[in-house]
């Protein structure tokens, strides 16, 4: 299997685990020092990331990870794609569409998530659209 195929397969397992709130599966997919940068700039370490599901604070109803492009640099890979979610956090909707960057590292022959960064997708600002 190619690196791209390996990472796409890991992505499918990650989506299934997030949607199921399966912290045991998520735990096996991430490095010990995993970090997430959320769409509003907050940073979660591995335990905080897993704790959202353990506490029941985060419920992911639907998640799609698509249009993924993978670049490999030795034992590190960068996967950039679109992350669509329908979810709630502490009962509040956190639905959204994000550009997501996943940083992966190869450890003992398998790819693991070392980090994620989510940025909300939106229209370009007026100056970038050629506005006056």
Write up what this structure looks like.
This protein is an alpha+beta fold. It has helices at 3-20, 23-29, 46-54; strands spanning 30-37, 43-45, 58-73, 76-89, 92-93, 96-107, 110-120. Strands 1, 2, 3, 4, 5, 6 and 7 form a seven-stranded mixed β-sheet that branches. β1 (30-37) and β2 (43-45) form a beta hairpin. α1 runs antiparallel to α2. The chain is globular and about 45 Å long. 17% of the residues are buried. The mean pLDDT is 94.
**N-end to C-end Cα span:** 50 Å
Structural class: alpha+beta
Low-pLDDT ranges: none
Q: How would the global form be characterised?
A: globular
Q: What order do the helices and strands follow? A: HHEEHEEEEE
Q: What's the domain count?
A: 1
For the secondary structure, the number of strands is 7
Taking the sheet with the most strands, its summary is: 7 strands, mixed
Q: Would you give the CATH topology?
A: Nuclear Transport Factor 2, Chain: A
Average predicted confidence as pLDDT: 94
Q: What is the CATH architecture assignment?
A: Roll
Reading off the top of the CATH hierarchy, the class is best stated as Alpha Beta
User: Count of DSSP helices?
Assistant: 3
Strand content: over 45%
Q: Rg, please?
A: 15 Å
Q: What percent of the residues sit in helical stretches (DSSP H or I)? A: 25-40%
């Amino acid at each position: 299997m190619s690196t791209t195929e390996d990472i796409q397969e890991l992505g499918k397992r990650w989506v299934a685990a997030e949607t199921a709130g399966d912290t045991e599966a998520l735990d096996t997919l991430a490095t010990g020092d995993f970090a997430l940068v959320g769409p509003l700039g907050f940073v979660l370490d591995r335990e905080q990331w897993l704790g959202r599901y353990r506490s029941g604070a985060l419920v992911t109803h639907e998640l799609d990870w698509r249009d993924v492009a993978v670049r490999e640099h030795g034992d590190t890979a960068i996967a950039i794609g679109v992350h669509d979610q329908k979810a709630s956090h502490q009962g509040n909707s956190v639905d959204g569409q994000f550009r997501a960057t996943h940083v992966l590292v190869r450890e003992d022959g398998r790819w693991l998530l070392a980090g994620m960064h989510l940025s909300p997708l939106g229209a370009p600002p007026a100056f970038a659209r050629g506005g006056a």
